[in-house]
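step: validate -> pass
step: tokenize input -> pass
step: predict -> running
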Amino acid sequence: MNYDHQFHAGNAADCCKHLALTLSLQALIRKDAPLAYIDTHAGAARYTLAREGEYREGIGRLWSNRRSLVHAATWLKTVAAANTDGALRHYPGSPAVAAALLRPTDRMVLCEQEAEPAQTLRTAMGRRAHTSILVENGYRALFAQIPPAERRGLVLLDPPFEARDEWERLTDTLLRAYQIWPQGMYLVWYPVKTRGTITRFLQGLRGKLPATVMELLQRPEEGRERLIGSGLLMINPTWGVVDSLAAAFAEIGPLLADPATGGRWSLRCEGWPKAPVPAQ
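step: predict -> pass
step: emit ->
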């Protein structure tokens, strides 16, 4: 795998996905019943920010404004807890974000197939109860975990998008997982880079499962193959999550916008229900 978590930690994509994860888990834990959290590409849980890393265009732009970003407050408190002296040196990954929110009775299943980050992840999670760390491919591991005994919960899918068949495998995984566990919430991050690829991805899902798609773009679409923003696909989003995330993205969007393009940013959202089953 070529993806360098250390260099990319805290970038704009991380800010978007971890903010969405926080708001989703907040909504789920409003009910007393325990839940399962499954992370298919967990990473190392905590990162020391690289001096020249991409965090400068992500959490670095939000950090000095953190007290005024009310819709992102809970997530930013998790980041602040990793930087107790107020200086931004560390960034919590998705397992740490989830662990900060979940209750002792909630179960975590964290998949990381690379041995080194898996060991770091194991150390970071410490003795947290009801936590499993699986050193295996997250796509395959997912199907052994659903439906969970808790019958409610969230699956985070955040692949590196390095493999040629990543989009196809992600589509197949979501369709199959939804058939097995249609009650679960699924949160998927994807790069907004090549619009044709994204269009085909969403066409493969539309009408087959209920979903909302939200994209926060940090720069205009110009037809070139470059990363311009983050996309989030939410299957079965809990009530209130979409509105909360839209408000949060509207808050952080101007701060994450690329100054080189005049500070332009945009927020796109669409959703669809599952197509009705034809009458027999």
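step: describe -> The chain has a mean pLDDT of 94.
step: cleanup -> pass
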